[in-house]
Amino acid sequence: MNWTSDYHMHTPLCHHAVGDPTDYVAQAKALGLSEIGMSDHSPMPRDDWDDWRMAQADLVEYVAKVNAARAAHPDFSVLLGLEVDFIPGLEGWIKDLASRHDWDYFIGSVHYVSGHWDLDNPKKLSEWRKHDPFEVWSLYFQRLTQAATSGLFEIIGHADLCKKFCFYPREDCTPLFNTFLQAAADCDVAIELNTAGLRKDCKEIYPSPAFLKLARKHGVRITFGSDAHAPSEVGADFAYAINLAREIGFTHWCRFKGRERQFVPLN
């Protein structure tokens, strides 16, 4: 297998992952990857925002851990990224984070659709039963489209995360998908093939094969991410994801360095 880079993985600083970046590098090298990117959940303006991300004071330690992995493995490419929540009104905060270190890329993700409801949080599963799924999916894709047009991100993360717990709308969501994908294409923002969905209730890659076919038609670029929360998940199901991308008709994937992109053939 000609492996791509794995650009989505976490550290214990987010309170729900294990293993230091050096452990992730060791697993990636064992698999035959030539590059990974750490992209832990970024801090928010308040440390009590939720309980699944690093605190503001942890950001320096996070960067130091990534640099330590680079020093320990000088023959291996380790990129410095962040997974950043897009919430309208916090654009200034994201720009501030971007100015603090020499990042290689930002993954823009939507977890919150309103207030303090992070729709993928199993602790808040009951919230889904209070809402019409189409209403939630509509709000989710509205925010995802805003993230794509914000100019703040190189990659949009797990683009149909709202399917995680299998609350599917009866209505056709294709118009929601197309609006987002056209925005991503117009703003030249990549989406990731995120294999974590295969390990969740939905048992399907993020985004779905049907969604990816639409992305190909719109000319949207792609990256790959395992969303690893443990070293054993690095590169998980990448053979499936790469073959799926090929079957759909993608010919290249995106590499990032210093927030600049290059295209790599999907051989």
Describe what this molecule looks like in 3D.
This protein has helices spanning 21-31, 59-72, 91-98, 125-128, 133-149, 174-186, 209-218, 238-248, and strands at residues 35-41, 77-85, 105-109, 112-114, 117-118, 155-156, 190-194, 222-225, 252-257, 260-265. Helix 1 (21-31) crosses helix 2 and helix 5 packs parallel to helix 6 (174-186). It has one domain (12-265): TIM Barrel. The chain has 8 helices and 10 strands. A hairpin with a 2-residue loop joins strand 4 and strand 5. The strands form 3 sheets. Strands 1-2-3-6-7-8 form a 6-stranded parallel beta sheet. It has a two-stranded antiparallel sheet with strand order 4-5. Strands 9-10 form a two-stranded antiparallel sheet. The chain is of the alpha/beta class. It starts with 20 loop residues before the first helix and ends with a strand.
Features:
267 residues, alpha/beta, TIM Barrel, 6-stranded parallel β-sheet, two-stranded antiparallel sheet, 8 helices, 33% helix, 18% strand
Mean pLDDT: 97
CATH superfamily caption: Metal-dependent hydrolases
Name the poorly predicted regions: none
Q: How do the SSEs run, as a string of H and E? A: HEHEHEEEHHEHEHEHEE
Q: Structurally, how many domains make up the residues?
A: 1
Main beta sheet strand tally, sense and closure: 6 strands, parallel
- How many angstroms does the end-to-end distance come to? 9 Å
Helix content: 25-40%
Total number of strands: 10
Overall CATH architecture? Alpha-Beta Barrel
Helix tally equals 8
Neighbour order of strands in the largest sheet: 1-2-3-6-7-8
Oligomer: single chain
Shape: globular
CATH-assigned fold name: TIM Barrel
Task: Quote the beta fraction.
Answer: 15-25%
Q: So what's the CATH class? A: Alpha Beta
Using only C-alpha atoms, the radius of gyration works out to 17 Å
